[in-house]
Amino acid sequence: MEEYGDMIVRLAYTYVKQKQAAEDISQEVFISCYNSLDRFQKRAAYKTWLYRITVNKCKDYVNSWSFKHIHYKDYFSSILMRGTSKDSEGLDREEKEIIFKKVLSLPIKLREVIILHYYEELSVNEISSLLAINANTVKTRLHRARKQLKGLFEGDEIDG
For the RNA polymerase sigma factor 70 region 4 type domain, which residue ranges apply (predicted)? Predict the structure, then answer.
């Protein structure tokens, strides 16, 4: 939990966009992991296995009645910005928040590949395995996500 806890919360937050729900999901992930440890087949890295459990728990939560019918705001937390990729080290905190908010505004299928690739630094093949989709699909989603993000930032320049 110490090694992967923040990573799991960050990943869960990208799906549910609520800090408390992300923390609850991360607890469920570690409980599931503990209960299923004897079934871990070591075909993938432990980190990838945790990601897969997290993604599945998040998808279950997003499809749940409570998520669809209970709406409340959550404020962006500094814990979610820790551990971003090397590409964004030079950016200050405010710029990181702006970028991350734009990433969170993407559709879930595009958002998840951006988060996994740039924030969690997984390769295309690792993402493909994790999400159980073709590597070319991952590449396509990354391309579309980058294009949408570019459009979002260009829109800001025009508006403001």
Answer: 103-149
